[in-house]
Structures are given as C-alpha cells and as structure tokens.
Amino acid sequence: MGNKQTIFTDEQLDAYQDCTFFTRKEILRLHGRYHELAPHLVPMDYTNDPDCKLPLALIVNMPELKENPFRNRIVESFSEDGMGNLSFNEFVDMFSVLSETASRELKAIYAFKIYDFNVDNYLCKEDLEKTLNRLTKEELTPEEVELVCQKSIEEADLDGDNKLSFADFENMITRAPDFLSTFHIRI
Amino acid sequence: MTRTNLPGDARERITRRSPPRNVAGVMMMRMRVRTRLPRRSEEEQPIRRKEAKPRTVMRRTVMQTKERRGRREERKEGRRRRTVRLSLQQTHSLHSPFPICLFCSSSSDSNSNSDEEEESMSEGEMARLMEEVEEKKKLIANIRNKPWRMKRRLVHLKEAQQFVDKFEGALGKGKGRKWYAYKVMMTKKWIKFQRDFENFRTACIPWERKIKEVESHFGSSVASYFIFLRWMYGMNLVLFGFTFGLVVLPEVLMGLPYGSIPRKTVPRAEQDTAQDYSVLMDFNGYCKYSVLFYGYYNSQRTIGLLKFRLPLSYLMVGIGTFGYSLMVVIRTMAKNADVGGGDGEDGEFTFAWKMFTSWDYLIGNSETADNKYASITTSFKESIVDEQENQKDENIHLRRFLRVLANVMIICSLGGSGYLIYFVVKRSQEFANRDDLSWYEKNELELIMSLLGLVCPPLFETIAELEDYHPRIALKWQLGRIFALFLGNLYTFLFALFDEVNTKLEEEGSIRNASIWAMKEYYANFTRAINDTESTPPPMDPADVIRGPCWETAVGIEFVKLTVSDIQVSYLTILIGDFARAVIVRFLNYCWCWDLEAGFPSYGEFDISGNVLGLVFNQGMIWMGAFYAPGLVGINVLRLLSSMYYQCWAVMATNVPHERVFKASKSNNFYMGLLLLILFLSLLPVVYTIMTLPPSFDCGPFSGKPKMFDVIMETIDLDLPAFMGTLFSYAANPGLIIPAVLLMARDEEKNRRNNTDSTNQVMKDLEDLLPNRSLAPPPVPG
Questions:
Q1: For B283-299, how does the pLDDT look when each residue is reduced to its tens digit (9 = 90+)?
Q2: Where is the stretch described as Disordered (chain B) (predicted)?
Q3: How far from each other are the two terminal CA atoms of chain A, in whole angstroms?
Q4: Has residue B394 got a pLDDT over 70?
C-alpha cells in the first residue's frame, strides 16, 4: 500500500499474509507488540530473518494472556522446543490461530494440544482433572471433579478407550456452539 | 536442545545431519519431512536422481538442440522445462505435505515423450502440469489452514510460489500462449489488488481499540453489542451516501434555490415565527421547508445541465435503500451461519462443552476473570446437581392456571398500550389545531411511545415470573412479547397516521380549488390595476400561494420527531440510570447505613438485550421514515456515531461486569434475523403508500402525478428507446410476474432454511440476553 516501513521486506509481508489470517497492518502491529516485550532483544529489522526467541515468562505476561488459566499451555503448544520460547514466527502463528477468522478445524487441533497437559496425544483423565482444576480454581471437591471428568469422557469418547483421542475431541468440539467465540484472542 | 533459526541452506544441512530426538512427536515429523524437502541439497537427490538421470540427460539434449535453433522463447522454455523436470523429480520425493501423487506417473510418461522433437510437452503432460499448478495454487490459498509450524509454512509457500511462477510461463504453449500469459498476469494483478483492498479495508475499520478494551473488561457478549453497533453505523453510512449523493446534493446544486417556488418557501402566515427555536425544534418553520423533508423537492423531470432526473432518482433511492439493506443483512447472516455450528441438543455434550468451551479467552481483566471462575464453578455445580437428581413436576394444575393468568395479564397490557397510543395520536391531531401548547402537549406522542418501550419489558418480565418456565423458553416468550409490543405500538401509530393522511388528502381537494380560484383572482386584480390585457402578469409571490397540506412532509416530520425523542430518552436513561446511579453509590456510600455497592442499588450492569432491541427497532423506524424525510438517515448516522462514544464511555465508567458472566456466543445471527424481520415489516407501509396513495399536488418530486411510481412509466416512455417500452409492457404480463415472484420467494425460503440450521444456535444465544436467570433446578421438596 505504499507505507514506508523497514521492518519487513514486501515479500516477507506477503508471505505472512498468505500464511496467517492477518493483514499487513496487523502483522506490523504484532511485530510492535513482540518488540515491546523485550526491546533490547528483539531487533527492529527482520529483513534478514534474525534468530530471536523470547522466553515463556515474558510472553505470558502480555495483557491478553495474563488472566488466562491456560496461558502456559498455550505458549508451550506453539513453541518449537515445547518449552515456551517463541520466535516471532511462532508468536504470529499463535495469534493467527487464535484470531477470529481462523478455521474451526485449525482451532480444534490447537485446542487439543493445549488441553493435552502431558503431551501424549490423548486427553486422559489427568489432563481433564488438571483442566477442571484450573477452570474452577480448585473449588470443587475431589468427588465432584471425579464425576465431571468421568462424565466428560463418557460423553465424548467414541472408541471406548477411556481417554479422548483427537478424533473424539474434534467430533465433540466442532458441535459446540461457543467454541469459536470463546477460543478467540483479539490482538 | 534449542532450535535456532538459521537462514536458508545452513539450517537444512544441520537438520539433516542430526535430527534431534525430541519428545514432541510433531517436531519429529516435521524434522523428517524437512529432510526430504530441500531442493538445493545434494545429498537427498542421489537416490532419485540415479533413476532419473538418463531422462534428464535426454531432456537436456533435446533442449540443447532447440537452443541451437536460436529462438529466444524456446530457449527460455527449454530452461524452464529443464528445471521442470528436475523439480518433478524432487517433488516425487516428497510425501504427505503435497497431495501430488500424479508425479509418479508423470516421470514414467516423460520417458515416452522424450523422443518427440517438436512439441516436447504432449497434451497429457500439459494437462498434468496444469493440474499440478492448480494443486500448488490451492495449497497457497489454503496454507494458512494447515496445522504446521510457521517456518514450515513459509518454506512450503515459497516453494509452491516458485513452482507456480516457473510453470505459468511453460504452460503457455501453442495457440493461446499470449492470451494465457495475459490471463495469468491479470489474475496476479487482481489478487494483488484484492489483497491491497483488504488491507485498506481493515485499516479503515474504526474503534478497534475501544472494542477490545470493552471486550477485555466485560467479555464478548457485551462487546458483541458494540460490534453490532459498528456494523449498523457502516450500513447507515452507505445509505446516507446514496441518499445524500443522489437526492439531496443534486437538488441543492442543480435545483431551484430556496424561495423561488411555493413549495420551497415558508408561507406568509408562518414567516414571523419561522426562526423561533421552539418552532425549529418541532421541525416546522425553516426546517420544514428544507432538504430534510419530502416537500422541498421539485417535480421537474430533469434538472441542471446534466439532465439529472430527480424524481426518478428519488424513487430509485427509496427502493434501493431497502434493497441494499436486505442484501447486506442476508449476506452477513450467511457469513455468520457457518460460525454457529451447534446443532447438538442440550444434553449431548454438557460436561465436555463446559470443560472445554466455557473459558472466554478474550478476558484480560482480573475482576472479570474472578467473576468468570465463580460462574464456571457455579455452572459445574448446577450441572452436577442436575445429574444427580430427577426433576419432579409439582402441581401441574396450579402451574397451568398461573401461566394462563400471566398470558391474560400480558395481553391486557399489550392492548392497553395500543389503545393508549391511539388515544394520544387522536389527541395530537386535536392539538394540531390549537396554538397555545405546552412543551409536554407538543411532544406527548413521542414521549408516550418511548416510555412505553422502556416500561413494558420489565413489566412483562415480572409477570413472567408467574409462569415458571425454563429460562430459555421464558426468554422466547419474553422476546415474542416485546416484539408484539413494538409491532402493536408502531402499527397503531401508523394507522393513526394514515387517518391523518386521509384527512389531509380530503383537505387537499378543497384547497386545490381554493388555490386555483385565488390565482385567477390575483390575475384579475393585476390586469385591472395595469389596464393592459396583453402583458403577462408576474407570478404570485411564492409566500402567498395557498398551500396544500402536503401529507408526506407531515409523515416525515412525525418520524423525525419520534426518532429524536427516542434518542433523547435513551441518552437520558443512560445518564440517569447508569451515571447518576454510579455517582450516588460511589459517593453516598461513605455516609450510608448499608453498603450501597454490595447491596441495593449497587452499580448497574450493561443491559445487552435492551440496547440491542432498541437499536434494531430504531433502525426499523429509520427505514420507514427515510422515504419521506431524506435527512433522517443523516440524523441516524450522527446518532450512531455519538452513541458509540457515549456508550463506550458509559460502560467503562459506570458499569460492572455481569455477576453471572454469560456464555459468550456469537449472537450476531440472532440480531440479524430480528433486523431482517423488521426490515420486511417496515417495507410494507412504504410500499403500500407508493402503490396506492396519490402524491400531493403541490409538493415533493411526484407532485402532479396520479401515482408515485408513474415516474418509472414516464421514464420508460420518454427516455428509453422504443423497443424497451414494448419489452416492459410484455414483461409486465401477470403471467410472467407471478412465477418470478414465486421463484424468488422459493429462493428466499431456501435461504432461510439453510439458516435455520443455526436457529438452535440462535436459541442458545438467547440465553445471553436474559439477565439474572439461574439455571439451577427448582428446589426439590423433602
């Protein structure tokens, strides 16, 4: 559009626009946000694709993530090393998946990853218990927690292995009326 | 082991040498795939290339022969083809990422074709190549949907783009080459243009920061109201653009100025008071004889140098307003239809959904987050209790009696409000004949209507407590009743207005005679005074001409007054109901016996349902009145703009997050459905008046015609070529029109049916709108 910015080359911006659900303005804004998390670490010039990762602790302090009980899991799911260190690419990826226009299937995949605490590609009882405790700040009694987890697995488990595989999860979540609107972060 | 981002080949080399054994299975897969990806890497190629070598060598020989012929284009194509063959080999080595398994066959086929001299690319190869290019293009279009890491996406994207670029040229062989290349270039330019336009459009979207702030404080359901408000503002802005550009501006620039003809001048009798503030506030005086209202416009067929046909434009803009609104609402509904995917019944995945979709990721404020934790806990406990108990129906007869009683009471109140409005309209007609009116008497009608809209819904809610329905069903009833209230009020108002219009039309008959009589008298006086029967007398001063009652302007004035009073009432309600309340609670709390903040009255919560319904009904009134008062749309645009800022400020400064934070659902389709219904209901009166009522004889763009739509007939007769006239007369055959209408109706039905998939979703959305409804089951006795 003719804006003279020197952070990215035009090809890079076009590539980002193709690879994410963001427009040019939003990508530049994202870079601004990434930069302000650690102004001394993050370079302003990304034209030669610098190598720069920000640690988990910085990212989860963003106002958009601060109050989220799953913030650590979110950042870990999008990081390559699984430890929560995000490069700018992964940062953009994270917000693109969580944006309003991302497709339902894509969101389901990442939701599954987020709620899979022990990263074994199944949502087993321990994962559900952890999720529930985070959601209710441990206000429920252990019996209630047990009941809820049991019921959830009963409802969604299709292949009867007493844990939720991705297929089970996807089948359940795509019918949820609220999923798209709650699994959304605006940046 | 931390992954480092190294550019280009270096990265690829490292990955291949030591693929890290990482726990994350995804990463492993990615690593594995990456080792197969690189194009320029040498180590990967040997396995494939050994097979391919003879072919590529032969290919190269053929190409070299061609090059020796010295034709520049063929050399270029040859180079492209060589790299084509090479990449074909490479892509053959890829697995899952690229769904291109045809390559297996293509490499074998190329063997047989390598002997051809002239057209080295046979038809089959071309077709295959085209398919491949299409696949790559599809990949590029869908790459953002793939659940890959960003780096992998970027790499694949770059490859796919380079592949497509190379091939687009190669494919343009044969007769249509230049045309194909041109087509490709235009497609690229079009895509680029679309992208730039999208960027421009998103850069223009206003109030993003504001809405985000509201969202993080109040959750997505409150913010959805503001998003809806912004959408309405956009639609009204477009409507304003049409009206202003095609109706108001031409009249102002090219039409006759104020004071030149009777309809544009304040009558002599009113001229003393025409500038008074009170008169202007009533939209009489100078306001009445301005571009704001129908009566100002001249019925001259063409105006100005450009021969602009104003009456035709007026009619078309009036109809186009409805058409555009319809199109926009349906398009938005269709877009939102696939968002609401829930067609499961209530009990299907209760716990699972609560577990995985109850947290609202938009929340960024700790107070809201605390509220949300509390409400999630409560909701789980309710479901657990539900699960552990059976619900028993208690004394069904009492319940039925109470429900019947409640319905009777509500029907009575609906009837009462309808009668009240009728009575007030009749009274206002009497008032119109008097001059000494207090402010209240002048604005009684509008005040009463607005107050009814404010008072009745809470009344209905309290009566509905008797009924003891499940909250979702109770909400359906409540909404139905509010709808009936609004419709009843509006249509009573319209009927009363029609009475007035008919009286005015009768009056018109006698005034017309009187004015012709007065004109004759004026000429007679003039000739007598001058004693010269041959000179033409100057026309009567416009201010002295006897005027007809001009019912369209009267209707327009009524609608404008209604809208203005609606604005005033809603702003005042916010000021008093929210702001004053917050100030009192905050400052009186220091010296009050009980805790004002925790108990009664405490701070207000944002009333989503009230505000949305108000917005929708207001838009209905605008649609109805816009035909008679072109300025109304402009007033509405100003109102929406100021409303946005005012309400954003009010919500942030005076409201607290809802105690029971609702399921945040995308309620937009519900609002859109309401809007669509209101659109049809407001279309009816306008169409009726256009079709049946005769326009006033001396004001407005249709004066002098028997019916308003005669303008179209006139245009067809005079402006369009003769054959079109006969064409239209054939097309106007009822035998053609009725099937066409039925077809359209059927398409509408189909459209609606496609949208009914989302009605269950819509019903779930409704729960948002109902405050203070707990889903706790009724207490079990014993």
A1: 888 888 888 898 888 88
A2: 1-20, 34-85
A3: 22
A4: no
**How far apart are the C-alpha atoms of B69 and B637, rounded to whole Å?**
70
Tens digits of residue pLDDT in A57-66: 999 999 999 9
Residue A59 forms contact with B (CB below 8 Å): no
Using the CB atoms, write b or e for B342-380: b if 16+ within 10 Å.
bebeeeebbbbbbbbbbbbbbbbbeebbebbbbbbbbbb
Using the Cβ of A18 and the Cβ atoms of chain B, whether some distance falls under 8 Å is answered with yes
CA distances from A182 to A98, A123, B303, B354, B360 (A): 10, 20, 56, 11, 5
Q: Give, in order, the Cα–Cα distances in Å from B381 to each of A139, B90, B771, B773, B777.
A: 10, 58, 19, 16, 11
Predicted ipTM of the assembly: 0.92
Name every residue whose Cβ is closer than 8 Å to that of residue B522 and which is 6 or more positions away in sequence.
Answer: B537, B540
Nearest residue of chain A to residue B355 (CA atoms): A132
| C-alpha–C-alpha distance, residues A13 and B492, integer Å | 58
The pTM (predicted TM-score) of the whole model is: 0.70
Partners of A20 on chain B (C-beta within 8 Å) are 144, 150
Q: Is the pLDDT of residue A50 over 80?
A: yes
Query: Which chain B residues touch A70 with a CB distance below 8 Å?
Result: 359
Q: What is the pLDDT of residues B162-183, one digit of tens each?
A: 888 887 766 656 556 778 778 8
* End-to-end Cα, chain B, rounded Å: 63
Tokens 């939003």: give the residue. A26
Residue environment code for B80-117, b if the CB has 16+ CB neighbours within 10 A, otherwise e: bbbbbbbbbbbbbebeebbebeebeebbeebeebbeee
- State the SS3 of B371-394: HHHHHHHHHHHHHHHHHHCCCCCC
d(CA A108, nearest CA chain B) in Å = 10
- Per-residue confidence (pLDDT) for residue B26, from 0 to 100: 43
- What's the gap between Cα B699 and its chain centre? 34
Q: How far apart are CA B33 and CA B322, in angstroms?
A: 55
- Token pair, residue B545, equals 């001409």
Peptide bond just before A39 cis, omega within 30 deg: no
Percent of chain B at pLDDT > 70 equals 74
Instruction: Give me the residue label for tokens 């009619």.
Output: B315
Question: Which residues 6+ apart lie within 8 Å of B189 measured at CB?
Answer: none
Q: Could you say which of B7, B363, B765 has the minimum Cβ distance to residue A67?
A: B363
Q: Tokens for B371?
A: 């509220």
Q: Which residues of A touch B143 (CB under 8 A)?
A: 18-19
DSSP assignment string, B234-298: HHHHHHHHHHIIIIIHHHHHHS--TTSSGGGS--GGGTTTTT-HHHHHTT-GGGTTSTTSGGGS-
- DSSP annotation of B412 reads H
Other Cβ atoms less than 10 A from the Cβ of B641: the count is 15
CA distance B362 to chain A (A): 5
Q: Which of B312, B303, B299 is nearest to B255 (CA)?
A: B303
Residue of B nearest to A132 (CA): B355
Return the structure tokens found at B604.
């207000």
- Cβ pair A63:B216 closer than 8 A: yes
From chain A, the residues in CB contact with B766 under 8 A are: none
Which residue reads 């009605």 in tokens? B759
Q: Residue B99: its pLDDT value, please? A: 40
CB contact (8 A) between residue A80 and residue B27: yes
Q: Which residues of A touch B189 (CB under 8 A)?
A: none
Question: Residue range B392-406: average pLDDT?
Answer: 79
Cβ–Cβ below 8 Å for A51 and B350: no
Query: Which ranges of B143-245 does DSSP label H, i.e. alpha helix?
Result: 150-170, 177-204, 208-218, 220-243
Q: What's the residue count for chain A?
A: 187
Classify residue B430 as exposed, middle or buried by CB count within 10 Å of its CB (0-12, 13-18, 19+): exposed
Please report where in the chains the tokens 């459209």 appear, as a residue. B751
